[in-house]
Amino acid sequence: MIQTITGRSDFIERLKGKNATFMLALSNTDTALIAGITQAGIPGQIYLTPTLDGEFVCTGAVHSLTQIPKTPTGIPTPALLSRAVHLLAPFNAIELLNLGLTIPPKVEGFCVHDFGLSPSGSIDQNAQIDARILFEKGRAFGENYTPKSDYLLLGESVPSGTTTALATALALGYEAHEKFSSSFAHAPSSIKHTVLNKALSHLKKSDTFFDTLGKVGDHMLIFTAGFLLGAHRKGYPIVLAGGTQMACVLLVLNAFLRYTNEPFDASSIALATTKWVHEDTNSDLKGLLEMLDFPINAYYANFDFALSSHPLLALYDKGEAKEGVGAGGCLVYGFLQGLEKASITQKVEAFLA
Amino acid sequence: MIQTITGRSDFIERLKGKNATFMLALSNTDTALIAGITQAGIPGQIYLTPTLDGEFVCTGAVHSLTQIPKTPTGIPTPALLSRAVHLLAPFNAIELLNLGLTIPPKVEGFCVHDFGLSPSGSIDQNAQIDARILFEKGRAFGENYTPKSDYLLLGESVPSGTTTALATALALGYEAHEKFSSSFAHAPSSIKHTVLNKALSHLKKSDTFFDTLGKVGDHMLIFTAGFLLGAHRKGYPIVLAGGTQMACVLLVLNAFLRYTNEPFDASSIALATTKWVHEDTNSDLKGLLEMLDFPINAYYANFDFALSSHPLLALYDKGEAKEGVGAGGCLVYGFLQGLEKASITQKVEAFLA
Question: The domain A2-352 is classified under which CATH number: 1.10.3720.10, 2.102.10.10, 3.40.50.10210, 1.20.1260.10?
Answer without folding.
Answer: 3.40.50.10210
